[in-house]
Automatic annotation (TrEMBL):
Its EC number is 6.5.1.2. This is DNA ligase. The gene is ligA. Residues 613-692 form the BRCT domain. NAD(+) binds at residues 31-35, 80-81, 111, 134, 174, 289, 313. One of its GO terms (molecular function) is metal ion binding.
Length: 692
């Protein structure tokens, strides 16, 4: 792949993972993999500065603000930290500090890198007034009521032992969910048939952003404070400020350590490599900060992080385990995922201990991966867990093959859930079960997708509840949800026996649960068309594509009746998506499904959302743009065109009226426009058209 394409690909991918991580509290890849991709993008951008995308994640703090809370500007920007997994880069960091300080002596404070979310807490006249998330670094979500539930946070600070507190000050720290609370919360979620979080960080992030602060209080969040900020200079060093914060009643972790040299820093890192698992919360590294505030000022900041600090992240921990067997999971699309069943050498079903948690299973992705690893049942394998995410099998310890009986893995030819014969699509690594209409996990998976936050957002339902409804024969597809009655739900019960421990668990719908489900389903009828379109689960129509289709075609019938060519005229709709949409609506069952949703009262027409009409100077004209613009982000440019009556199309064709050419335009679009005699205009010319 050429550098230009790779840069675009990396930018898109990283922005996507950032959104999932910060907005949805979900890690789709491990932190280490994320950091590796980010490093790759950074070095490509250094080599080819012209190719850098305007929305590049390399120079921005990764978060964002939600629509669920008021957002407020930070008094002092909230930055990220530079990070590294390598000792050499720590030595390089120390070199830069030494050079930057021109021979002055200096020292570091090392702290644990707590794995939660950053919080800013403002006090006025000693009273806690505001708690805000980091957001995009400039503005964050005002989550004051949720932050108030932290029991260790003093809501009123009294001056103590000669520490004068200024009238306005801010403390910063990491909000987190201790392991114990995390496990309790996931246990409860499981019992209630709700989805559990993959790791404590994601759980903390999701919890701090709940609307219901009673529920927040119940979950047992906590925070460690590690920074004091005010307009006045009160402390000379970080150490002094930590001591004072503690005296003032803040929860300051006592695991920090002052280090005179980078060798001492290394020793601290080594010391905590294993010891950190004995802490009551998840950590993912060590933060190294210059101690003197005056020296910090000398070194300053980049756009994204201070130059006086760095985070050292521990590499994913790897350990051996025995492969007991392989099971096969069937997903919503019918894709089969082989899963390694792992255990310790005693094969006592207790699994292995890895990064502070018990591991019994790991994804093997697909048949090719099993072949690539040359896996056999009974093998000793290496298991790795990065950023507390789903573990993976990285290799086989061939020196130990034969210590246990090993057995070849026979990849199944039939679906483990419904028995249908599996097939493989050309060019795809996965096997699929073709039995869309009759294979239980596929049916349940589609309903789970339907209720997703970005789809119909029915959060009173979850995996376990759907399973129960399906097993009782109450729902066979998502449209059935709209026929559910309170009387059918109340008292439903299911007994689950844990195969390993023999323990029996009961999932049951009491009054409140049943009512919440009915209310949640009713409320979902208000969800906008774009979300309904995403919810119905057409292949390749993700949330963004659904939004594009909805705003272009305006209603479901227009999409249903659109030809391949018409679909392709919608912005950013390519061949694969167009074919998939066509195929979906050719299927009579799907058409009936849509009719049932219509009868239930779902929104199948786009309301004229935020798009305001500014004028009609562009009416009847089609536009396409290429490159970057001074006055508009892509999205804003599209809105501007549409707000003035114009239409944005997806590709250069003879029918295109104007190609707006920005900075660093794509050469293929320009070539094609020249060939077809399409008028090319600059940003200024475009603005002039609006002014007419
Ligand atoms: N897995 C994914 O999909 C995914 C997606 C986006 C980001 N990430 C991860 O998140 C990282 C970026 O997140 P980030 O910008 O929050 O950076 P970061 O988490 O690497 O470091 C900065 C943060 O560390 C926290 N922190 C914890 N202990 C601290 C201490 N003692 N002192 C100071 N700060 C402390 C603060 O909240 C601070 O904002 C990426 O490098 C990646 O590892 C992962
Ligand atoms: Zn099946």
């Amino acid at each position: 792949m050429n550098p230009a394409d790779r840069i675009i690909e990396l930018t898109e991918k990283l922005n996507y993972y950032n959104e999932r991580y910060y907005m949805d509290s979900v890690s789709e890849i491990s932190d280490q993999e994320f950091d590796l991709l980010l490093k790759e993008l950074e070095s490509l951008e250094t080599e080819y500065p012209d190719l850098k995308q305007p929305d590049s994640p390399t120079h921005r703090v990764g978060g964002g603000i939600t629509k669920n809370f008021a957002n407020v500007a930070h008094r002092y920007p909230m930055l990220s930290l530079a990070n590294t997994y390598s000792e050499q880069e720590l030595i390089d960091f120390d070199e830069r500090v030494r050079k930057g300080l021109n021979g002055e002596s200096y020292e570091y404070i090392c702290e644990q890198k707590f794995d939660g979310i950053s919080l800013s807490m403002t006090f006025e006249n000693g009273i806690f007034v505001r708690g805000v998330t980091r957001g995009d670094g400039v503005r964050g979500d005002d989550i004051t009521t949720n932050v108030k539930t932290l029991r260790s946070l003093p809501l009123k600070v009294n001056p103590k032992e000669g520490i004068s507190v200024p009238p306005i000050f801010e403390v910063r720290g990491e909000g987190f969910l201790p392991f114990a609370s995390f496990e309790k919360m996931n246990r409860e979620a499981e019992e209630a048939g709700e989805e559990s979080y993959a790791n404590p960080r994601n759980a903390a992030s999701g919890t701090f952003k709940l609307q219901d602060s009673k529920e927040v209080a119940r979950r047992g969040l906590d925070a460690y404070i590690y920074q004091f900020l005010a307009d006045q200079e009160i402390f000379a060093t970080h150490e002094e400020s930590l001591i004072a914060l503690k005296k003032l009643g803040f929860n300051v972790s006592q695991t920090y350590c002052k280090c005179a040299t980078i060798a001492d820093v290394m020793a601290y890192i080594k010391e905590w490599e294993d010891k950190r698992y004995s802490l009551p919360l998840a950590t993912d590294g060590i933060v190294i900060k210059l101690n003197s505030f005056a020296q910090r000022e000398e070194l300053g900041y980049t756009a994204k992080s201070p130059r006086w600090a760095i985070a050292y992240k521990y590499k994913a921990e790897s350990k051996p385990a025995i492969l007991r067997g392989v099971t096969y999971q069937v997903g919503r699309t019918g894709a089969i995922t082989p899963v390694a069943e792992l255990d310790n050498e005693k094969l006592n079903h207790k699994g292995i201990h890895l990064s502070g948690t018990t591991v019994k299973r790991a994804s093997l992705h697909n048949a090719n991966e099993i072949e690539r690893l040359d896996l056999r049942i009974g093998d000793t394998v290496f298991v790795e867990k990065g950023g507390e995410i789903i573990p993976k099998v990285t290799g086989v310890d061939l020196t130990r093959r034969g210590m246990f009986d090993t057995q070849k893995i026979e990849y199944p030819t039939n679906c483990p859930e419904c028995g249908a014969e599996l097939y493989r699509k050309e060019g795809e690594a996965n096997h699929y079960c073709p039995n869309e209409k009759g294979c239980p996990p596929q049916i349940r998976g589609r309903i789970e997708h339907f209720i997703h936050r970005k789809a119909m957002n029915i959060d009173s339902l979850g995996e376990g509840k759907i399973e129960l409804l399906y097993e009782k024969g109450l729902v066979k597809d998502a449209a059935d949800l709209y026929d559910l009655k309170y009387e059918q739900l109340f008292g439903l019960e299911k007994v689950i026996e844990d195969k390993e421990t023999g323990k029996v668990k009961r999932i049951g719908f009491k009054e409140k649960t049943a009512q919440n489900i009915v209310d949640g389903i009713e409320k979902s009828k208000e969800m906008p068309f774009k979300q309904v379109l995403f919810a119905i689960g057409i292949r390749y129509v993700g949330a963004t594509v659904a939004e594009k289709l909805a705003s272009f075609f305006k209603n479901i019938d227009a999409i249903k009746n659109a030809s391949y060519e018409e679909l392709r005229t919608a912005p950013e709709i390519g061949d694969k998506i167009a074919l998939s949409v066509l195929e979906y609506f050719q299927n009579e069952d799907n058409r009936q499904f849509i009719e049932r949703l219509r009868t239930a009262g779902l929104q199948l027409t786009a309301q004229n959302e935020v798009k305001e009409i500014e004028g009609d100077t562009l009416t009847g004209k089609t536009f396409l743009y290429t490159g970057t613009f001074e006055n508009f982000e892509r999205e804003a440019l599209e809105l501007k065109i549409e707000a003035n009556g114009g239409k944005v199309v997806s590709g250069v064709s003879g029918k295109l009226d104007y190609l707006i050419v920005g900075d660093k335009p794509g050469s293929s679009k320009i070539e094609k426009a020249k060939k077809l005699n399409v008028k090319m205009i600059s940003e200024t010319e475009f603005m002039a058209m609006l002014a007419v």
